[in-house]
Amino acid sequence: MASLLGETITLPEDLFALLSELIRQHLGLEYPPDKRSILQDRLYPLLVEEGMDSFFDLYYLLKYNGGNETLWKRVQSALAVRETYFWREVDQILAAANYLIPALQAEAPGRTVRVWHAACASGEEPYSLAMALSENGAVDWERLEIIGTDFDETSLNIARRGVYGMRSFRVLPAHLREKYFTEVQSQHFQIHEKFLKKVQFKYLNLMDEAGMQGMQDFDFIFCRNVFIYFDIPSITRTAQHFYEALRNPGYLFLGAAESLLRIPTRFELRELHRAFVYVKQEKEET
């Protein structure tokens, strides 16, 4: 139960319903009734920082104060899930790095292969792909573009610096940390400059229609362990954007606990090189 200046501040049930729906519409994040205390605890520090007297103040400013993008970004940061690490669910990373990306470059020698890591948090996933590609040695770096996006500026700043504590390395083989990172302070390591230059990061809210429509012509999209926080309409809308953003053929990687089985989709689920992937492959018109 939150407290401000000795007074108890709670998120009432009726206001929770309004605020959680507003958050769902703007961010795609779903907070069912049993998560009311979690939402309250995550947003409470923001109330303190802004000098607000109640959760109603926050709701009012978010809904009626001209969109208030600065405040929305602070809400996004408060609600961001930053649990990620190198080499997470690595079978998909290796399938892309060792087989799919080299094969696509070989089939289309004049084309740049484009990879989008959506909701990449602090960047461990796109850097994992870059390391796997470097280990494989079969990629043409001049014809490869890797972009990571997220709605949390704090996480993006970490990704751009490329400095990580030991928690991010908990499953990465030690020899890869030694090969691709430099210790810059005690128990903190920075990824090598060639990867900092190769992987680009930018702000993007997956619920932003205009921003999503601007993401086009990708061969691979990774959006892993994100849909577990979305409701069905948000998953459906985002998956459709991904389909439209992909070239033909195109590949979408989701997390191990996620699927598109509950929504209508034109993606086809396949197992390729020991990894599950959703494939866009439309028949060419003759």
From TrEMBL:
One GO-annotated biological process of the protein: methylation
GO molecular function (one): protein-glutamate O-methyltransferase activity
S-adenosyl-L-methionine keyword on record: yes
Record EC number: 2.1.1.80
Chemical reaction(s) catalysed: L-glutamyl-[protein] + S-adenosyl-L-methionine = [protein]-L-glutamate 5-O-methyl ester + S-adenosyl-L-homocysteine
Pfam families: CheR, CheR_N
Name of the molecule in the record: protein-glutamate O-methyltransferase
Record-annotated CheR-type methyltransferase domain positions: 4-283
Keywords from the named record: Methyltransferase, S-adenosyl-L-methionine, Transferase
Superkingdom: Bacteria
